[in-house]
Design goal:
Elements lengths: L3 H8 L25 H18 L13 E6 L5 H12 L3 E6 L11 H10 L4 E6 L4 H8 L3 E7 L5 H14 L7 E5 L6 H12 L3 E5 L20 E2 L3 H5 L4 E4 L15 H8 L3 H4 L7 E3 L12 H4 L6 H19 L5
Parallel strand pairs: 1-2, 1-3, 3-4, 5-6, 5-8, 6-7, 8-9
């Protein structure tokens, strides 16, 4: 049987689909806790094929021709929404962008009613961002369309985690025993949660670094339903020997809620700087899900330095989301 890499040049040009066979088991993409390592690897390999398409002069193939896709965002978004929009259009899907601020939500329409309306209109795939954790799971129970979680409250952001994994994969030879340090507001970060699942499933060793007030409740004592991870509040020790340093956006509203003594204190202790990165490996790479608060959670010199892959993460977002849309559609056209 030919591999995905061998098939990729013919798979999306109306000839033959990528051989997904029994690896892919998902109707929806809600988080990475129910992904297997084989499924994550399939996403990575399919993304390789999508990168080949994006390198062409004409970045469009008919893989999703005849499919309709709606982006349903109850929160503002630039990177995630625009990359999904580009991904769907590159695959020839019909795309409708729907924001809560311009929909019947303002008239009191509930989430389920909105979803049922979209299904009645023949929508095949719904990409959701919602401020309430668990909303995409509610959606998956009420409609037949494929649901992709584009961020739900503090809970999960699986497509961001997959593009982070792909970015790491481009620069590191393997995930197993890779040392990844995640720094910042873990408590309120859906990105951190999904990355913890994805990274540990692929064999990476994850270390969390932040004030204990910014850890999910109980994580400093018992990991509960989380995979095996380490908590180290001292950033110098947390970065020692790290292959990957991931800074998280500090949600500035938290500074007003008594979780931090002051923004200045947090910046002094937890800002990712060149000096602190010196504790990591010489070939450490730096990630950030964006948007970046420069010189707060991460210094400007690191953001724009040679170890930063922040712009590459954004670029990879389109290819990863193309891969996910392709896999959800069955890899056929």
């Amino acid at each position: 049987m030919r591999t995905i890499q061998q098939e990729k040049r013919v798979s999306l040009d109306g000839k033959r689909g990528i051989p997904i066979d029994s690896v892919w088991q998902h109707k929806h993409i809600l988080d990475l806790d129910d992904f297997t390592p084989a499924e994550i690897e399939l996403v990575m390999q399919t993304t390789d094929a999508m990168h080949e398409i994006l390198s062409r002069p004409i970045k469009k193939v008919p893989a999703l021709r005849g499919k309709s896709l709606v982006t349903l965002f109850y929160e503002p978004s630039t990177r995630t929404r625009s990359s999904f929009d580009l991904a769907a259009k590159n695959l020839s899907a019909d795309v409708i962008n729907l924001a809560a601020s311009t929909s019947s939500v303002l008239k009191g329409e509930c989430l389920v009613d909105t979803l049922e309306t979209l299904e009645a209109l023949g929508t095949d795939i719904i990409i959701m961002r919602h401020p309430h954790s668990g909303s995409p799971y509610v959606a998956a129970r009420h409609v037949k369309a494929h649901i992709i979680n584009a961020g739900d409250g503090w809970h999960a952001h699986p497509t961001q985690a997959l593009l982070d994994l792909y970015t790491i994969r481009q620069h590191k030879s393997k995930f197993k025993d890779l040392k990844v340090t995640i720094i910042g507001d873990i408590k309120h970060s859906r990105v951190a949660r999904s990355n913890i699942w994805g990274l540990t499933k692929m064999g990476a060793r994850v270390k969390l670094c932040c004030p204990f007030t910014l850890l999910p409740m109980g994580l400093d004592k018992s990991h509960g339903n989380f995979p095996d991870i380490e908590v180290e509040p001292n950033i110098d020790r947390a970065l020692k020997g790290a292959d990957v340093a991931m800074a998280l956006r500090l949600q500035l509203e938290r500074q007003q809620s008594g979780l931090l003594p002051s923004l200045r204190e947090y910046t002094k202790m937890y800002q990712l700087t060149e000096e602190k990165l010196a504790h990591a490996k010489d070939d450490v790479i730096v990630l950030h899900p964006g948007p970046v608060n420069e010189d707060i959670e991460i210094s400007s010199s690191v953001v724009h330095g040679p170890r930063s892959l922040i712009n590459q993460q954004v670029k990879n977002g389109v290819a990863v989301r193309m891969a996910l849309l392709y896999l959800l559609s069955g890899g056929t056209h």
